[in-house]
Amino acid sequence: MKKLLFLFCFCGFVSCTLKYEVTEATFEKITTGPGPEDMVLDTFQGRNRLLISCSERRKKQPPKDEIWDINIDTKQSKILPRTNHPDSIIFHPHGVDLVFDENKAWLMVVNHEEKKNRHSILRYLVQEDELIFDTIFWNRRYLKSPNDVFADTKDKFWVTNDASSRNSNLELLLKIKGGNVVYFNGNSFVKSTPGLAFPNGIVHVENQLIVSTSRENKIFSFPLNDQKKAIASGKIVLAKAKGWDNFSKYNDTLLLCTAHVRPLKFINHYKHSNNKSPVAIYLINLKTKNAELLFYTDGLVISAGSTAIFYDGYLYVCQVFDPYIVKISLAK
Fold first, then answer.
1. Strands 131-137 vs 82-83: parallel, antiparallel or unpaired
2. Which fold has domain 2-330?
3. Where are the domains of the chain?
4. DSSP H helix total and E strand total for the chain
5. Percentage helix, strand, coil, to 5, in the chain?
6. Mapping DSSP to helix (H, G, I), strand (E, B) and coil, where does residue 79 land?
7. pLDDT tens readout for residues 138-147
8. Fewer CB in a 10 Å sphere around the end CB: N or C, the chain?
9. Residue 211 contacts residue 219 (beta carbons within 8 Å)
């Protein structure tokens, strides 16, 4: 987060400002832990809930790191207990993904242990009332600064490294392409993409690898070869905007992606909750290769929105700092 704040601060001084129009919408807040930065939809075996990765990111606040469960029908929220979690692993979640495999649901969690310099992917078996710890995937050579994860199966997944290390401010300042995407093939990690400047969200769709970048301000699509390595010569730019963050699937051909489009206001919101930080949410069309603005708020509805999920007629948006998500009904 320190790197991201530095990056946004710098970008805010050197870039022009596009004009956005606030989207008409009604909304309601649903309580979570602080910093509900990423979320997934769990509909396995009749469940109807969101699982939220929460971590306190404001300075001088006590650490709070949990996975929260929001019942979509009742809007009741609670911490989902983690069982069998080793004492040797400090839990500090970031990006998450949910995959249904072997007739079970599995939660993949990007985890940061700063003091140990260990950044990993944790896998949990998802149950109705608990998350059962299963595996840690860790390789210091390939997991330099993981940000987001996308799982094909419980054993095969993709991870964005937003930079070449967790403290690479100069790299970000100079737009050095030190980040990348790595792939775990069931046995080992392999580097998939060439260097990227702060890759963030990641989705694998058919033979396309879709990556959002915060420093290049672009969403890229890469074709893949048989070894799951990106073919650099086939790279396509799908969309341009500032501060791209996480993806979710809208349907088979559309993705949702959030963007922190006012960098300085993002910084001010980090400093104090009352300072609003605008959020733009785009529809990315994988067939037509273009992007359309779906929703924009100046920060009144939610600030620093990081993931958006469209489900059952409503838009759910989580955020980087404040302890709630929003359920939005868009005007028709």
1. parallel
2. Neuraminidase (2.120.10)
3. 2-330
4. 3, 25
5. 10, 50, 40
6. strand
7. 999 999 999 9
8. C
9. yes
